[in-house]
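Researcher: Good morning. I'm working through a list of sequences from a screen, and I'd like to move beyond sequence-only analysis. For each chain I'm collecting a predicted structure so we can compare shapes side by side. This is the next one on the list. No need for commentary yet; just the structure.
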Amino acid sequence: LFVPFLPPPRPAVAAVIRSHLLERAALKSALGEVRSLRWSPRVIDFLVGQVEFEREYAIEGGKEAPAVLSRWVTRALRRLAQSTIDDARAANRASGRGGAGAEGEGEGGGRG
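Model: Good morning. Structure tokens for this chain:
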């Protein structure tokens, strides 16, 4: 059986990326890592721009979407989580609440 590969155009790649973002946002929310994630249409446009196209068609189809999200979104979320943890620790230290257990809290929350 032969199934031809028809590379998707930009709007289809944008839909795949949007779908992955929605799935990731739902997972992060369900795990309690974030309350919500929102993004502007410019974020989708930027991520679509990271996919390799030949004229108007994605060379690898939608397969690049997870790699693009991993490179740009997962890393940003990890940095945000670490920054939030660091800010909370600094605030605890400044207020004198940085007890013995505070240092280990929040470790490993950047997976994803």
